[in-house]
Write a structure and sequence with these properties.
The complex is a heterodimer of chains A (about 300) and B (about 270). Chain A has about 300 residues and is mainly alpha-helical. Chain A has a single domain, classed as Orthogonal Bundle (MetI-like fold), CATH 1.10.3720. In chain A, about 70% of the residues lie in helices and about 0% in strands. Chain A has 13 helices and two strands. Chain A has a two-stranded antiparallel ribbon with strand order 1-2. In chain A, helix 1 crosses helix 13, helix 3 runs parallel beside helix 7 and helix 7 runs antiparallel to helix 10. The longest helix of chain A has about 30 residues. Chain A is globular and about 75 Å long. Chain B contains 14 helices and no strands. The longest helix of chain B is centred in the first third of the chain and has 32 residues. Chain B is mostly helical and about 270 residues long. Classes of the chains: A mainly alpha (about 300), B mainly alpha (about 270).
Chain lengths: ~300, ~270
């Protein structure tokens, strides 16, 4: 913010001329809808009739007594294990094994490991529905061929296994991203830190705790934010693989918003769910960013 | 390095790359096989390569129409969003701008909020305007969501642009507009390319908005088209595989060509999508 000195004769509002097109589209199609979602959450409204009824916090009271919503929220938390914790721990573990020296041919592995990130989640869902298919899916075929036929099951149709099955698709998408992120971060940790601590007699594990982990603070927070958000807002993947089923065993808040609003025409109730989801995502992002900054000082 | 140190590293990389590659390659191979062949041995090479699945998905499954819709929506969204983001980032990073302080957090909010949180009012808005089942309903909200990230991204570039060049341009009598396009634009190419490929990927893969806004089959984009296709042919793996490849191929190609930019953008904390 150094060079805002005006040119001679220039209007002090000149910046707004350049900002306005983007800003007005943003206001109309993102910012005002955020406010509108919050406002709708205080109404009873089917989305069709002209008169909506103000009911205060009733949607929220109802929400926190609604077993379906609480279950969906719980499933989002389970997804955090699969989308965030497993990929981040795995990524840290593998990155520390791979170490800091450059590896020949690494670009090829990087391209492959990152690939799931660029695929449409619908495509990912189609692929994994095939892998998990009870009769001709490769997973069950593999289990049968190694004599574990009793473990073969309809993974996505099983009340116990559907949630971890969908969750593990999330791990599959995220772990390469986390690994690459941490490896690129480790390139920026000065080699002298490791040399000095080796001289002090520190082992690999102690080096990991005292040098690698603090050195990756900002990469870890980027990984946490993006995987947390992905786990909390998951929709495409659930829509494609299970539609929340069997029963409600893979129901998540994103899908509940869609179903309440567009299939059951409870716009007010769906808006309350959306508001809660938005607050959770925003506070998670703010807390993680804060933790990142406090570490930099 | 000694091979004894190198070997375990390669084994780790190969193992975890295989976990990514195996499901993808199984699907890729399936697209060129017949249904019976796929179900018998999913990872075998096709005995006889057939393109029947692609032509069936393309014409019978209407993926030709979905492809056209995706291309139109993505082209407009990416072009408009990049252009507006450059202008807005230039304004915040370089120009006199009263109220700058509260613009930044406002945009940050839009960057962090997912479509799920705004989809209901957007649907109602498009309904009232009579724009459901049109390209507008897919383009305008996507631009709105993209420019918040794009503006922050370009602001970071313009804030750190070399001031000597900007000052020299001013001395030479360049207007703000000329300075942007003649002096700064060439320098902005890496940042703009990264932004372009990220916008491309987000728009091409966008699902919820297209699912909600479009009822008319002829207006569906590729991901939504694939999702309905899946409902109809859920057991026909070769056909689904071919359809999936049609959906995924453009993003995979662009990713491979521009991967340096892609990875930099996503590692830089771009979490939208």
């Amino acid at each position: 913010m150094k060079r805002q000195n005006h040119y001679p004769g220039e209007s002090p509002w000149k910046g707004w001329l350049y900002l306005l097109p983007a800003f007005s589209i943003y206001l109309v199609f993102t910012f005002l809808p955020i406010l509108e979602t919050i406002r709708n959450s205080f109404y009873d409204w089917d989305g069709i009739s002209l008169n909506r009824q103000w009911i205060g916090f009733e949607n929220y009271v109802h929400l926190f007594q609604d077993q379906q919503f609480l279950n969906a929220l719980l499933h989002n938390l389970v997804f955090i294990i699969f989308y965030s914790l497993i990929p981040i721990f795995l990524g840290l573990f593998l990155a520390s094994l791979l170490s800091r020296e450059p590896i020949r041919g690494f670009n090829f592995f990087r391209t492959v490991l990152f690939l799931p990130q660029v695929l449409s989640m619908v495509v990912v869902g189609v692929i994994w529905r095939w892998v998990f298919n009870p009769s001709f899916g490769p997973l069950n075929m593999l289990l049968r061929s190694i004599g574990l036929g009793t473990a073969a099951r309809a993974w996505l149709g099983d009340f116990t296994w559907a949630l971890p099955a969908v969750g593990s698709i999330g791990s599959w998408v995220q772990y390469g991203f986390c690994l690459i992120l941490f490896l690129s971060g480790m390139q920026h940790i000065p080699e002298e830190y490791y040399e000095a601590s080796s001289l002090d007699g520190a082992g690999a594990i102690s080096q990991f705790w005292h040098i690698t982990l603090p050195g990756l603070r900002s990469e870890i927070s980027v990984a946490l934010i993006s995987t947390f958000v992905a786990a909390l807002r998951v929709f495409d993947l659930v829509f494609t693989t299970t539609r929340g089923g069997p029963g409600d065993s893979t129901m998540v808040t994103g899908f509940l918003i869609y179903r309440s609003a567009f299939l059951q025409h409870q716009m007010g109730y769906a808006s309350a769910i959306a508001t809660v989801l938005m607050i959770i995502i925003l506070s998670a992002s703010v807390i993680i960013r804060h933790y990142q900054r406090s570490g930099e000082e | 390095m000694h091979w004894k140190k190198l070997l375990p590293r390669y084994l780790i990389l190969i193992l975890f790359s295989l976990v990514v590659v195996l499901p993808l390659s199984g699907m890729l191979l399936s697209a060129f096989k017949s249904e019976t062949e796929v179900n018998a041995s999913p990872f075998a090479l096709p005995e006889q390569i057939t393109l029947e699945n692609f032509s069936q998905a393309w014409s019978v499954g209407h993926f030709n129409i979905f492809f056209k819709n995706s291309v139109i929506v993505t082209t407009v969204v990416v072009t408009v969003s990049v252009f507006l983001s450059v202008l807005a980032g230039y304004a915040i990073g370089q120009l006199p701008l009263p109220g700058r302080k509260w613009i930044y957090p406002l945009l940050l909010l839009g960057y962090m909020v997912p479509f799920e949180a705004v989809i209901i009012p957007l649907y109602n808005l498009m309904d009232v305007l009579g724009l459901r089942d049109t390209y507008w309903a897919l383009i305008l909200p996507q631009v709105g969501l993209s420019v918040s990230f794009g503006t922050l991204w370009m602001t970071a570039f313009f804030e750190n642009a070399p001031s000597e060049l900007v000052d020299a341009a001013a001395m030479d009598g360049c207007s703000r507009w000329q300075t942007l396009w003649q002096v700064l634009w060439p320098l902005a190419q890496p940042a703009v390319t990264t932004l372009t490929v990220l916008f491309f990927m987000w728009t091409w893969n966008e699902f919820l908005l297209a699912l909600v806004m479009v009822q008319n089959e002829s207006m569906r984009t590729l991901p939504v088209g694939l999702s309905f296709f899946l409902g109809r042919y859920s057991a026909n793996i070769p056909l689904l595989a071919a359809a999936s490849i049609i959906v995924a191929l453009p993003t995979v190609l662009i990713y491979i060509i521009f991967q340096r930019f892609f990875i930099r953008g996503m590692l830089g904390g771009a979490v939208k999508g």
